[in-house]
Amino acid sequence: MLDTELENKGRRSTRASENGVGRSLVGLRTAAICLLSAILLTTAACSKTPAKGEPTAYSGQKVVQSMESILPPDYWPTAGWKTALPEEHGVDSASIAAMVEDFKDHNVHSFVLIRDGYVLSEGYSQAVDADTRQPLYSVTKSVTSAITGMLIGEHVLTGVDQKLKDFFPGIERDAAKGNITVEQVLSMTSGLEWDNRGERSSNEMADSPNWLQYVLERPVTSQPGTVFNYSNGNAHLMSGVLQTALGVPISLYAKSKLFDPLGITNMSWGVDPQGYSIGAWSLQLTTRDMAKFGLMYLQKGQWEGKEIVPRSWVEASVQQRVAENYADGTRGGYGYFWWLKPVSNSGSAILDHDAFYAAGSGGQRIFVVPDLNLIMAFTGNNQKEDYMPEGMLFKATTAVKSNQPLAANAAGEARLTAALQAFKAMVDKPE
């Protein structure tokens, strides 16, 4: 379980500048901003044996095939999302209401449910609203991944086979370290030492005067490319690679090349003492803008007829680079700073739908379920229930009844309205 005190220090430390690029230097020690809880989801010793014949293994090939079958939306939400009734897009309002009723008192802060490019339901606790910029914590890593693909597409980087020695002079003196590839960093298999117990390495990095130097001084403790070890150091190192290649912080590049085209203006992104954007955490967006990022990936990196992230990079990012057995009995893994798994709940129920998702501590998620043309964005402050967002996603996917409109459901709509009103009155419970 993540250290609550460290998490609180991290939240207090984030400050935003007027141009939307924040500077957070004091106490972002908390790599609770990271998603160490993602590791807790992948404890093989806790795995249940699924029933015979259950579809438990994530398939990157199926995910790509599903994305290929999705048409562009009939509008682009650059200037804002359009809304629709759930039934108009084959979703049962009463089932969404039940999801809200079940989870509203679990320190959820917000959610947005998108299908076919329309907001079918969204809810906010007393703490936030649709315009509130919220800390994404380790969801930031997936944005760092997107920028990597964009720079490869622009030939600023030559590819994922580039080595650390291409970017950091002097590191070649340690052959094993100098030959670590971009791909190994993105898949958390760099082999660099990183101690997640009590967030020791993340705290030490954030307390150090030079974060990149701290990461680069970690010894290689396993052969690069062979052992998965979730690491804030890898993600911040990736930011260092990108800024070295670009010559400017990736937050500035992202603003002009990624966020502005999507109509995302309410954002901030912290930097380390040397001015490197924090690649592991510290990005802040609204929940609706989180969903825009998910839609852009669902649309294979396209937005309004233009390529934002290369399609080839989107497809490569959601392929399984590391295999993991999750605690719910599913088999998935890790791509390029994206988590990959079938949709399931915390029990034994598993659905025949694969999701790729960005995940951050406390309940921050961007879920993309391509075969349902569905996106869900979440924020929260729940350090004790690792599967809380996954449980909400499970309820939402079971609410999808058809690819055609359903009959109007006045009773279901009324129940959903009441559930969202009750959710808006909720405040966080002490943990």
From TrEMBL:
Residues 1-10 have a biased composition (Basic and acidic residues). Residues 1-20 are annotated as: Disordered. InterPro entries: Beta-lactam-related (IPR001466), Beta-lactam/transpept-like (IPR012338), Diverse_Enzym_Activities (IPR050789). Residues 110-385 form the Beta-lactamase-related domain. Pfam families: Beta-lactamase. It comes from the Bacteria. This is Beta-lactamase family protein. It comes from Paenibacillus baimaensis.
